[in-house]
Amino acid sequence: MKLGFILLLGLVPRITAAQSLRAGCEGEDREIAPVTPTSTVRVVSALAGGEQTCYQVVLTREGKEVTGYVLGEALPAVAAFVRERERTAAASFQAQAQWERTRAKPVPEASRSSADLRPARPQTFEDFTARDTTGNRISLSGMGGRVVLVTFWSPSSPASVHQLVSLVPLFHQYRHSGLRAIGISADPNPQHVLEALDDVTLGWPQVPDRSRLAERQGVNAKAGTTLVLDAAHHIVATALSGPELEQKVRELLGER
Q1: What's the CA dihedral at 33, 36, 42, 43 to 10 degrees?
Q2: What is the residue range of 216's domain?
Q3: Is 65 inside a domain boundary?
Q4: How far apart are CA 192 and CA 171, in angstroms?
Q5: Residue 8 falls within a domain, yes or no?
Q6: What is the mean pLDDT of residues 114-122?
Q7: Are residues 97 and 133 in the same domain?
Q8: Which of 19, 149, 162, 168 is least crowded, fewest Cβ atoms below 10 Å from its Cβ?
């Protein structure tokens, strides 16, 4: 009988525990409703923050829609949302590279035709919220400014640290004109970030990447990659440095 009981247990489908739809992204936020893998869920956006990414979702239950937040990618709808976003990010960077090549080398007038279309402008950098190394919660949308520099770097990579620090003169020269900046560290440990910048005063927030922001954008953080965003957070340039980066910033700020 024991063997038969064990075999029967093996045939019982594994039941995945329900998650909680909450009023916010913090663990102490009020629970609104349970959510299971079979629930009808539509993902609205992702908000980087703690150890797990927080997703704003709309749950349809008994014909009514309820908006709330879930943590992690356990729900099938959330996992599908992440896969699609990663695919879109990769396509965006391909479009960016093609767009930059086209701007650098215009198509000769004689060879143009009505079918000669400019490549699509790259996607926007998705809004996110996160806690910086001082524990303050910040968001991309809350930074304001007319131009935003987003630098992916790693405390274990001297080259990427140099790229980050090299932005100090540019930032202070144009911050009163609307330039903003944020650093995103590949190392999720805020102490490692602080140690790497122990003798450096940057003037803009540093965020430990606990939500795979670099992966979503398809960038190598250890290479020290800086993305240039316009006021609408379109990614208008990548991997620029020195005079080329300053020229792009001046162009977006309208300072020739």
Answers
A1: 90
A2: 124-253
A3: yes
A4: 23
A5: no
A6: 43
A7: no
A8: 162
d(CA 55, CA 72): 8
Find the mean pLDDT for residues 68-97.
Answer: 73
For residue 35, the one-letter residue type is V
- C-alpha 45/C-alpha 56 separation (Å) is 5
What stretches of the chain show up as alpha helix (H) in DSSP? 2-11, 76-104, 158-165, 168-174, 190-196, 213-217, 242-253
Same domain, 132 and 220: yes
Q: Are residues 162 and 233 in the same domain?
A: yes
Question: What is the model's pLDDT at position 14?
Answer: 42
Give a yes or no: residue 111 inside a domain. Answer: no
Taking Cα atoms as reference points, which of 126, 100, 103 lies closest to residue 233? 126
**Assigned domain for 2 exists:** no
3-state secondary structure of 61: strand
**208 pLDDT tier (thresholds 50, 70, 90):** very high
